[in-house]
Amino acid sequence: GTHYGDQREARSLMFLSTSRNFHMIEEQDTDNSIGLNNPTPSDAERTNQFALDTDIPLADTDVSMTSGLPKMPNEALDQEQYSYEKDIGIHEDMDPRMQFKDKNHHARVEPVEDVETIYVDGLTQEKSLHIGVNLQEPIRSCLIQFLQSNSDVFAWKHEDMKGIDPQKACHRLNLDMTVKPVIQERRKFSPDRQKALEEEVNKLIDNKFVKEAKYPTWISNPVLVKKATGLWHLCIDFSDLNQACPKDSYPIPHIDYMVDATSGHQLMSFLDAYSGYNQISMHPDDAEHTSLYSARGLYCYMTFGLKNAGATYQRLVNKMFARLIGHTMEVYVDDMLVKSEQASDHIAHLSEVFDILQKYSMVLNPKKCTFGVGSGKFLGYMVSQRGIEANPAKIQAILEFAPPASING
């Protein structure tokens, strides 16, 4: 370590080596360094702790799905047990939606009142949607009929995702050609992670989300994140690629304006695009730059870990719904809210949205859509006809708090 200062004001800096092109610096009191307090771990112990229990502040770095991860040795990275948020390492430059995710619940739009399940495929009951239980007739019957007649707007399986016409929207990297391409050193995985990786890659291949890359000049490593459910989530370390891409400063909507605009509406429907970013293809000139390692070879991939993907998506939906946004609709990236001041107008407003979705071949996720409710959670806020309300989940302890039994409480 290096010491500076004198006597009791002295401090020491501990440099911890990693394979990243920086060193971890830790400040220590001199008293502790000479053994007056608890003994200080050895350098080896500190380095091992950094590798297995790192706490680098990701919010201050320009990161992609995993670009906040230190580039540690393969075996150390494979053992690392990051939290969900730290492991994916996204901030708003990469994916503006991430600010609404927490470790307990990842929904950004959801109802808060009771809903009922309806079936839109007749007798098989394989295709279901959710509508509000408080809907009055004839609105309820008309809404069910409308959803049944527009079931093609939903992706009931991956094969139903048609993809946006590349002539209407595609993602460009706008690479800085003065930056030298990076082929990351291939990482090793433990057997269980390797198995999960191949299963995920096979799904991407089967669903045509990826294609084989022939001679890529940029190659990134896959990273597996274990969700709270115990399932693995495939991420890509696009840190090097993202650093070579200038930021797209296309404006993302102001959340407070959007939330305020939801008050005074009798009915709302919460919509979510199916695997949103994957509905936009990569531009052919940029596709192979997104290549990732796999036991089956190299594949290129469009994912929301890419820099500016959020801006690309917001630009598209602003174009699609320009006539409706601010009137009967609010759109934040792939989260959509259809709103009606009069309940009797809601189906007509939904019809306008569905016509546009069909025109652009954009499909919705039936599991994340709810129709015809009076209140719900939108971008982290509880919204209803009365305006913004307190989230019941956040004030449950207060609601259940026993009233004082005496003057002294």
Automatic annotation (TrEMBL):
Task: Give the protein name, as stated in the record.
Answer: Reverse transcriptase domain-containing protein
CDD domains, A to Z: RT_LTR
What species does this protein belong to?
Striga hermonthica
- Name the PANTHER family for this protein: RNA-DIRECTED DNA POLYMERASE HOMOLOG, TRANSPOSON TY3-I GAG-POL POLYPROTEIN
Can you tell which superkingdom this protein's organism belongs to?
A: Eukaryota
In this chain the Reverse transcriptase domain maps to 226-382
